[in-house]
Amino acid sequence: MSALGALLGQRLRRDRWQLVLWVGGTALLAIAAVGGVQQSYGTEADRQEVLAAVAANPVIMLFRGLPSGAELDAFTLFLILPFLAMMAAFMSSFLAVRHSRMDEELCRAELVAATPAGRTAPLVATVLHGIGANLALAVLVAACFAGAGYAPLGSIVSGVSAAAVGLVFLGLGLVAAQLMRTSRGANSLGVWVLLGSFLVCGLGNALGTPSSDLQRIESSWLTWLSPFGWAENARPFADDVWWPIALCAAVAVALTALAFALQRVRDLDGSFIAERAGRLAAPASLGSPIGLVWRLARGSVVGWAVGGLLTGVLATSLGAVIDEIGTKIPAVEELFAALSKGGSLEQGMVVIFFTIVGVLAACAAVQTVTRARQEETHGTAEQVLAAPVGRVRWLWAFLLVGLGAALAVCTAAVLGAWLGVQAKGADASLAWDALVAGAGQFAAAAVFLVLTALVFVLAPRLTIALGWVLVLVALLLGMFGPLFGLPNWVTNLSPVAVTPVASADGVDVKGLWWLLGVVAAGGVLALGLMRRRELAAGD
After folding, report:
1. DSSP letter string over 74-131?
2. CA 471 from chain center: how many Å?
3. What torsion, rounded to 10 degrees, do the Cα atoms 410, 359, 190, 456 define?
4. CA triplet 334, 339, 345: central angle to 5 degrees?
């Protein structure tokens, strides 16, 4: 018990700032949802019109929850519950891998296993740590809704639903850490399962059956294959049922038990899915730092680019849906008109979806730069720098490949937007709007690239955490700021919100020159400081 207490305390100390950011960010998202819905959909008639349009055009539910009525509290959860659950899921999956497979990679697990703690106590401590983090998230989310005057029982169900999804992905992260050979592979497996289950839930809701008044939708069987669907079918502030949450808990227990069982039969630092064997002879491309970085990053770049392509298709293929909603609800029409600087509703839709593209491009860029930190902590960077490769040239390779990754995502999104125009017979000018928006979001993604590089040079131990926090803040402000009616100065703190857009009077460059200035200055500063920086191999 003393060993377990020490391990749990070590995890709490190590993760204290990360947990504050994840849990606090989720609570802030809930608060923003309450204020935004009250401002943008203040009347029940507005909310009824939105739900009716959603029932008639269910593709919208790919990015929203399950409609359960037009009451203010139930409508708020329709908009925000999937994203609260997603925040809990990401937090839990990363936490599980960080304290299991990553500790094995860094040889910490072997040292702990040599003490009286053995091999089991660290896994128990990680489980308790994850449960505590999700419990804190549930309490804060429930407090946010209850503090806004929402029903106490529905507020509790809301918080517990989001946390229950987090517990499922805590168990999934522990299993992924047993299966995969590296923390990178385990995190990738967790993220792909998370995104896949989120999409399955959205498709299941889209294929559901609407009620006669179009204010409620019953999920199809497909939704029940996803923990996000279980949380949404708890229907906070409408039915407030607990058994779908119990289903999440049962699956979480089963996954955690499986992780313990797998660890008992696995050698330390071993895995059930072996790494793919390398070639006997390296290709010529690996003879340069750029070729090596591209080899490390190409899989993730392809994944982010596919996400950009799908987002671009949706940006120009939902015009009819937006016309129907916007012409009936003045608040929605004003929102899209403001985003498009007086342009059409379809132009506003392109701006919103390409904000998502900007976040995806930023993720691709940040992930590429954080690989430099991973190479440094794993000791492989030292081997590269022992060759005739300077520090500046090494970092430049990551920056260049990161720019290429962001460009690939934005280019794929523009291609997807063009395909959407062709498929739906939409206004051809939307393809130009998408091109302008895509170019602007590339500039925004480059800002995140150089900022993460600066963190890597100045405070290497904060690279991974702070790099992803910057993207998370940009997502919350840029994507949800306009939706929830936040002040312009708050929304404009996100680079993805100040990119050029095509307006009725031409192209509004907005903050393009500031973005380009930050990219140039940040890139030069990062490369210049890298000349005198020593390797920092510790985590």
Report:
1. HHHHHHHHHHHHHHHHHHHHHHHHHTTHHHHHTTHHHHHHTSTTTTHHHHHHHHHHHH
2. 8
3. 100
4. 60
β-sheet bridge partners, residue 508: 501
Question: What's the CA gap between 44 and 438, in Å, rounded?
Answer: 36
Beta-carbon contacts of 405 under 8 Å, excluding residues fewer than 6 positions away, are 297, 300, 301, 304, 361, 364, 365, 367, 368
Q: Which pLDDT does position 376 carry in this prediction?
A: 86
Tokens (6 digits) for 443: 């500039």
Nearest by Cα to 317 from 250, 241, 236, 413 = 413
The DSSP 8-state label assigned to residue 68 in this structure reads: B
Give buried/exposed letters for 173-183 (b at 16+ CB in 10 A, else e): bbbbbbbbbbb
pLDDT computed for residue 340 by the predictor: 47
Among 473, 437, 438, smallest CA distance to 452 is for 473
Predicted confidence at residue 526, as pLDDT, reads 92
* Residue 466 exposed, middle or buried by CB count within 10 Å (0-12, 13-18, 19+): buried
How far apart are alpha carbons 497 and 475 in whole angstroms? Answer: 10
Angle CA 60–86–435, to nearest 5: 50
Q: How confident is the model at residue 249 (pLDDT cuts 50, 70, 90)?
A: very high
What DSSP letter does each residue of 210-269 carry, written as one string? Answer: E-TTSSBEEPPGGGGGSHHHHHHTT-TTTT---HHHHHHHHHHHHHHHHHHHHHHTS-TT
Tokens for 257?
């038990």
